[in-house]
Fold:
Amino acid sequence: MPSKVEGLQQLLVEELQDMYDAEKQLVKALPKMARAASDEELQNALQEHLEVTKGQVQRIEQVFESMDMRA
Structure:
């Protein structure tokens, strides 16, 4: 039976994996959404969000690296 610490670590890893997957999906979807947007302001907002999302992906990858794990 896993200890509470092991259980919490596994939960953390699972949550990080879910967040990583969601952010990676956004990195793929946001450029398509920006191209489809007819409003220039919306296109710009989606492009800005894409850059923020790419940064979040990098931070999650760094967390995995600090845990000696692959994202």
